[in-house]
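Hi L.,

As promised, Glycosyltransferase RgtA/B/C/D-like domain-containing protein:
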Amino acid sequence: MRLAWLERTRRPSAGRVLAVASVLPALAVASWLLAGLPLLLAGWFRPLPTVILGAAVLVVLCRVALTRLPDLDATARQVGGVFGVALFSLVFNLVMHGEQLIVRRDPATYAQYAIWIARHGSLPIPRQAEAFGGDDPALWFRSMGFYDADGAVVPQFLPGPPMLYAAGEWLGGLLLTPPVLGALATLVLAGAVARLAGARWAALAALTFAISMPILYTSRATFSEIASLILIFGGVALLHGALRDGAGRWERVVAGLVFGLAVLVRIDALRDVLPVLAFGGLLLALRRGFSLLAGLAAGVGLGFVAAWAFAGPYLEYLSRSVGPLLIICAVVVVLTAVGTAMAGRLSGLRLPRRLPEIGAGLVALVMLGLAVRPWVQTVRREPITEEDWLTYEFLRVTQKNNGLPVDGERLYFEDSLYWVIWYVGVPVVVFATLAAVVLVRRLLREGAPFEWLLPLAVIGWTTVTTLLKPEITPDHPWASRRLVPVVIPGLIMLAVWGLAWTRERLGRGGRGTRWFGGAAVVLLLAPVAFTSIGTAFTPIERGERAAVENLCASIPSDASVLIVERVTAERFTQVVRGTCGIPTAQVRRPRSGDTPSSGDVLRLIEGVRRAGRTPVLLAAEPGQLSGYGPPRHVIALDTRQDERSLVKPPDGTWRLAVNVWMSLP
C-alpha cells in the first residue's frame, strides 16, 4: 500500500513533463474553442461562463488524453533546453510585439473582431442606423474586413482566433496574446519532434522554428496561423500516443477533435486535415475503430457551423477556392469509404517490387520540379472580380516600389519553394527532402515506421499544395504566413529526422560523429538567423494603441461618427464602432472620387441631430472637412510597417504615416 502511494506521488520524469507540456497547449486551445463557440452562438460569450465551461472541458480532455500518455525518452537537460527556447520566444516577442489596431490588413481585422465579441459577447454587429436618423442610401456600414450583410455588419474570417484573442482583451493584454501563442507553438513542435525524431533534437528544432522570420512575424500580431499550427501539431503529438498498444479509443477521439477544430480557426485547414480523414479510414480498415474519424468529424462539423453562422459573406468571397476544396474533400471521403470497404480484398494484392524506390523517387522529383518551376512557368491571373482588381493595382504599385517591371497580373507563385529557402535555408530543405525520401521508401517497403505515416502525409500534402497555389498577395513578409501552419514546422521536423538518420549512418560506417552536433546547429540556425536579423528587432505599427485611445477620447460620448473620406473610412469605421463604442458609418462616395457629395453629408448631419446625437466627421486631410466646421488633428502617427518585397526576403521596414482630422459641424 505504501509503495503504491509513493509510486503515485513521486516527481514526474523529465520525459513525462515534456510529453504533457507539449500537448497541453492544443488541449487548452481546443477546450476554449469548444466552450466559446456555443456561448457565442447563444450570445453569451462572457468571461465567467467561458472560463468555467472551458475549464470543465479542459479537465475532461486532459483526463482522457493525459492519463495514459507515454513518457518521452528525454533528459532534464533536453527538456530544460526546450522550455528555455519557449521562454526566449515569449520574452523576445513580448518586447517586440506589434500594435496592429488600425484596419489595414488581417491582424487588425482579427483584433477588432476580438474586441467586439469580448465586449458584447455576440454577433453580428448591429448597424445602429437609428443613431443616424434611420437608414439612408448614403450610409455605408461596411469597411475593410467587415461586410454589410442582411441588415448587420459581419466580420471577415472564422471566429476561432478572435475567441482566443478575446481572452487577452479580457485580461487587458489583447496585443500580448500572440507572443503567448507563439511560445506555446514552440513547445508543441518540440514535443512532436521529441516523439518522432528524438528528444535530443527537440531544442534545436524549437530554436530554428522560433527564430524563423515567419514565426516571429505571426507571433507578434493577431494572425490565425499560430493557433492552427498548435492544433495540427498538437493533434500529431496526441495521435502518436493514442496509437500505442493499450491506448483507448477515447484518446483517438480527442486527437481527431483537435485536428478538426483547426477548421474553426482557418477554413484553409480543411485542406491540411484531409490526410487525417484518409488515415482514419486506414485505422478503420485495420479494425482499430472509427474513433479518430468521429473526433475529426465533430471538430470539422463545429468549424462548418461557425462558418455558416458567422462567416457567410467571407465564404462567398472565397468561393473560387473553397468550392474546389470542398469537391476535393468529397472525393477523398468517397475514396476513403471505398478503400475501407474493400480493405479485405486489397490486402491480398501484391504491390510492385520496385514500388518503394518509385515512391522515393517521386518525392525527389516533386521537390526538383518545385525548384525548377521559376524557369518553366510564370504564374499569372487576369483580374475578374473587384478583389482581383484591387490585388492587380496593389501589385503594380509594389512592383514600382521594388524597381521591377510593372505587371499587375503576375503572382510570383512559381517562386514559392524559394520563399521557403529564404526563411529556413537550403540545409533544412535538403535534409527534409532526404528524410521524406527515406521515410517513404521505408513505409512502402516495410510498412514501418508506422508512426510517421500521418505526419508525413500531412506535411507532404500541405507543403506541395501550398507551394503550388499559395493564394495570397505575394509581398513579403506578408505572404510568409502561408508557410506557418504546416510547411515551416513540418520541414524543420523532417530536417532534424534527416540529420538524426545521417548521424546514425555515419556512426555505422565507423566515422566519428562528435563534431556532428555542432555542424547541425550551424547548418540549421545560421541561414534562419541571417534572414531574420533584418526585421527581428524592429517592431511594426507601434503607437497605434495610443493613437486609437486619443481618437476615442476626442469623440463625444453621445456622438454618431460619419467618415467622409475613403482611406479613413476603410481603416477606422470598425475601430470607432468597436474600440471607441460609438455608432459609425461612412458616407457613400461616387466611383470617381474619394469624397462624397456635400449634399449627402449635410443631410446625414441633420439626421444625426434629429436622433438627438452629436454629429462628428472624420477624414484624412483638413481640406476634406473645412466646409462643415473647423478641423482638428486627432491622429498624427508616424511609425513603421511591413516591407513589401516581391523577389527577395524582406530585410527592413517601411515608413507608415496615418493622419486623421475631426470636425464637429
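Residues 3-9 have pLDDT under 50 and may be disordered.

Thanks again for sending the construct details.

K.
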